[in-house]
Amino acid sequence: MATFLYKLGRLAFRRRHFVALIWVALLTLAGVGAASAPPAGSTSFSIPGTEAQKAFDLLEQRFPGQSADGATARVVFKAPSGEKMTDAGNKATVKKTVDELADGSEVASVADPYTGNAVSKDGTIAYASVRYDVSGMELEESTKHALEDAAEQARESGLTVEVGGDALQAVPETGATEIIGIAVAAVVLVITFGSLVAAGLPLLTALIGVGIGVSSITALASALELGSTTSILAMMIGLAVGIDYALFIVSRYRAELAEGREREDAAGRAVGTAGSAVVFAGLTVVIALVGLAVVNIPMLTKMGIAAAGTVAIAVLIALTMIPALLGYAGRRVKPAGAKGGLLGRRRGGEKTEPKKDAGPAKANLGTRWASFVVRRPLAVLLLGVIGLGAAAIPASDLELGLPDDGSQPTSTTQRRAYDLLSDGFGPGFNGPLVVVVDAKGSDAPKDAFTQVSDEIKGLDGVVAVTPPAPNKGGDTATISVIPDSKPSSVQTEDLVHAIRDAGGDIKADTGAETLVTGSTAMNIDVSEKLNDALLPYLVLVVGLAFLLLIVVFRSILVPLKAALGFLLSVMAALGAVVAVFQWGWLSGLMGVEETGPVMSMMPIFMVGVVFGLAMDYEVFLVTRMREAYVHGEKPGQAVVTGFKHGARVVTAAAVIMMAVFAGFIGSSESMVKMIGFGLAIAVFFDAFVVRMALVPAVLALLGKKAWWLPKWLDRALPNVDVEGEGLRTADERGSDPDEDRELVRT
Fold first, then answer.
1. Taking a C-beta distance cutoff of 8 angstroms, is the pair 482, 395 a contact?
2. Can you tell me whether residue 683 is helix, strand or coil?
3. Neighbours of 569 (CB within 10 A)
4. Which helix (H) or strand (E) holds 12?
5. What's the first-to-final CA gap in the chain, in angstroms?
6. What is the pLDDT of residues 59-108, one digit of tens each?
7. What is the residue-wise DSSP string for 477-509?
């Protein structure tokens, strides 16, 4: 592989005009497609095969024309102090608002509070339910404005009016912190390279790659029914890996220049060596993201594939556009260790090539740290494991759920409407359960409907049960159940299971099937599905990546150590997420206004993304160690050599990735905020504790055993030559690696 990538790097360097033209053309094409594409639809949490989805599908079949997937809104009214919503003036205001809402072109129905029993017992709060023909993301802006205007006009009469539901759903915003994250990345790159030009290359290529990826997602969003958060998550991951991959290749290019190579040859060797690590690191990320398909949640599958596509683009750009841009930059990109101005030249245009007679360089921080770890491996190992274990303790209290209006910031009208409904009608009113009774196989459908209703009334945790509402055929009915607990609580989850358990006995007696659906039940089914899929997903992804790393490192214990270290870092990151978003530690600093259950897809999403990113650092750092070991250094010295060449760059890459992820903490979408924080803290734990401390400690303790591989397996495995041994062998023979096709087994 190293020889092939070496040729690719030299070709891109020589044909830089052609390479740049191709990528600019792709960016333009994707941009035009995104600009002309219809907007993305709303994110769906449906799960094929679950009871909630089965009931939802049955409703669409048996109750045609009711727009089961249409947007909804609840316009909530609160009377001024000392007044009631039943007062004549307030009733007139509500009546006028209802009439205005009913005139909307996309409105399917509006329920009057006074005819639909939608006034609180104390008479201070009432609400009007509005149902639309299309989903929240498909509503015309004029319809949303009409809803907001109607609420504003009602406020002018002195009433408190707020609007809940998904009718005002908007595309999530990431805020200014995303730009700050990119700015931090730029500063780190300038410090790392000492040159604005060299620092600008990773940023430029990452932005181009993300631009192509996100624009392509936007262009296909409507056709593929991609959710509104898909492009944000693809941007988050694409920016992070795009900058990191380019960083490693530019750093290796500067190191090759420092050894006195010509620039074209240095570009080829940078792509042949660091580029090989980029390919395998990117492949682990792609495996982890595409592997999300095993969960069988369409939304999660699409998010994973979209993000994986952005990562693949980042790899291709790093392998082709970086050497092309290095050709354009010329001498403005300095060799490693050379000093000069920020633009890559000394004053007067003096070249910045390193001095040939320079004395031995002073040991850098990475070398000194690795030497310390090699001398005290057991102490460092114990300290790191205990620290990560302590950080993981909150994960034992993990509660999972999905966000609703109750997790919105208190500044939003949706959240204020949620709180008003909880005050007036109880916490469970914001998450009613919809019970669907399918009596098509029953001899007495009406009796079956009544029996189900009576059975539910006798369950604990039920506040109200509406009378059965049959369809025109009389074979199916819906029953609304109001719990006495909030939608995301454990008590509501227990009630859903209790209704389903009771439905089994009812079916045996009457032949009617009882199904529970609604957004609350759907969220519960999503959480359970994700929990059940976590272990199989973990086995699949870690297993495939383990086999891949055996091929890369030609070792059994090194990939095993990498996987175990990942488990430590992801558990510690989950503990931090629980502490902030569930317990409320530092919640004000993170902009978390409402604590509650952790998003149910967070564990499995973190496992996928963090594993891929963790293997990035493993590949980049340990390949340098293996390169030194196979060239004759002792195991302990190979660890130090690997840190000498790789620690500074890996540290910069980790800081950049943390800054990019942390930039999304400012998002208005709670899911994006939580993922941004979780990934940032996971990268911190994995890069600075696991890879920088535990990895050298374990390798120092194992010694030569770390690189042991059975001879039969060594013969069976393909030689991918990640370390560039084929290039070094060609040097020793004095031949041109561009013409040398021999692959040397390490």
1. no
2. helix
3. 29
4. helix 2-14
5. 13
6. 888 887 665 567 788 899 999 998 999 999 999 999 999 999 888 788 88
7. EEEEEEESS-TTSHHHHHHHHHHHHHHHHHHHH
